[in-house]
Amino acid sequence: MPSANVAERAPFTRPRGDRKTQIVVVGGGAGGLELVRRLGAKYGRKRHDIILVDQNLSHIWKPLLHEVAAGSLDANLDEVGYRGHCARWGYRFFQGRLEAIDREAKTIRLAPVLGDDGREVIGEHTIRYDMLVLAIGSVSNDFGVPGVKEHCLYLDSRHQADRFRTILLNHCLRVSRAMIADPDADARVRVAIVGAGATGVELAAELYNAAGALRHYGLEVFDESRLQVTILEAGERILPALPKRLSASARRELTALGVEVREDVQVIEAERGALITGDGQRVEADLMVWAAGVKGPDFLSRLGLETTLRNQIVVDETLRSVSDPDIFALGDCASYTPEDGGAPIPPRAQAAHQMADIVFANIVRRQQGKPLKRFEYQDNGSLISLSRFSTVGSLMGNLVGGAMAVEGRIARFIYISLYRMHLIGIHGWVKGLGLMVIGRVNRIVRPRLKLH
Prior knowledge:
- With 452 residues, this protein is of the alpha/beta class.
- It has 2 domains: 5-138 and 296-373, FAD/NAD(P)-binding domain, CATH 3.50.50.60; 148-293, FAD/NAD(P)-binding domain, CATH 3.50.50.
- The chain contains 10 helices and 28 strands.
- It has a 5-stranded parallel β-sheet with strand order 6-3-2-12-23. A 4-stranded parallel β-sheet has the order 16-15-14-20.
- The longest helix has 38 residues, at 408-445.
- The radius of gyration is 23 Å and the shape is globular.
């Protein structure tokens, strides 16, 4: 068995004089936001300066973006504003997009921030660091398929989810008006989703949930029967991370809703209003969503650090870049392959949470002159929510002492609990529990759909 600790490769040198130890975290996703909260709570601002950098002003948990896209979740109520959060937890926030790292000077350069009118709000500037953590997340991987960037929608960010919802509602309104003008018209909203992983499957189910509620919000003649959703999956089955039995169960649920699931179908081109498959078929659609995999943002490969073909930063067992001991990476933008020859750690929310925990421990241990801890990923399983219709998944590892398939209400309860643990991770126990109560009240009193 390998040791839980590893030796320090390069000792940490404290800043001289009155200069504070500056720890910069780039990326306010689940892992990055949890990390700065814990660092701020531990160190405060007396001898340390904890800085979070993100190009956005607020955070929303990425696994919820399919609900934002369908209108089932109002992101304005669930988002976390960085400026308010940093005031509570003792760190500083800078808005900006990482452009370059000067490893000799130990500074990062941020690109200018532009307003909606294109005018510069914040100029290009640099921030020094003693330790740097990259938690930038991932973006959709189009694998170079022609036409995808021009004609398909992604669900990588709040902005993209909001855009999808606006386009979706406009199409629903057009179909509703067409049916009023001609009750016999066969008008439908056609949605094609490429990729049958968690995002694609959960979005498909959530769309039917939203469509069924639209009749209560002014579209009296529109319902889920006017929605046509097609999932195209290049693999032999949907949800390959789940056992075959659960994958088949999810497929039956989707089919019962009205989703057309097509496996072993490779999309080779996207054009306006249609996807072209490898066998020459055209899948026509009003909205086309690309959810076929993820990669690190392209600029990560230009930072001077070793990266994979998918632009992920290669890290060692302590989650430090193999190119620089002063730079850590965690979450989807990091690539770590265990020494036992296993597969690289998958890009999941639970992995980001576990990595944030180890990076926090190693930052503390490094300043104390102690050996750093080795990252050991614990796969706790996967859960897939099919909106209010069903939840399926598998629990693994320490949760159940092995592996166990779960469905129905038990799976739904565990799925909701994951988000609750996320709230505790970024807000602490007191506020996290308070937000759970508020969230429960909001689900009762607020509208079922966000339509603006």
